[in-house]
Amino acid sequence: METAIRGRLSLSPNTVFNPKPGEKRSLCRGPCTNRGVLMAISTTGPSKGGGILEKPVIERTTPGRESEFDLRKSRKIAPPYRVMLHNDNYNKREYVVQVLMKVIPGMTLDNAVNIMQEAHCNGLAVVIICAQVDAEEHCMQLRGNGLLSSIEPASGAC
């Protein structure tokens, strides 16, 4: 018969777990600092001792937090930013489309043409909405290729 006992154990690489039936031993020598390891102890036979440790399941939690869910919930999500393309009287339409496809990852020909046309007709077009760091990078690349561009928070007015 095989019995599984689950509990929190703090083991160092030098600690040997081989209790005799009825013995209560502390597995921790000195201060126990590694309390985030969950181990399964499997014994064979009724009360025969000689336990075998299975592969540990490591929980990554911060002291004071209850679970991984709480950790994810507490992280702040960076607000999105819009990369805006401004119309200019210097660049040809074909060049604008080529630059958009080169600078923006995943930009298709159809999307690039639509963005270029919107900027040409309305004076302004949204190129992409992304994190602030990426928006700044895209804006600088567009400017580096001679296009007028800017960024603004996506949560602002349209």
TrEMBL record:
Residues 1-23 are annotated as: Disordered. Residues 78-144 form the Adaptor protein ClpS core domain. It holds the Pfam family ClpS. GO terms for biological process: protein catabolic process; proteolysis. It comes from the Eukaryota. Coiled coil: none annotated. This is Adaptor protein ClpS core domain-containing protein.
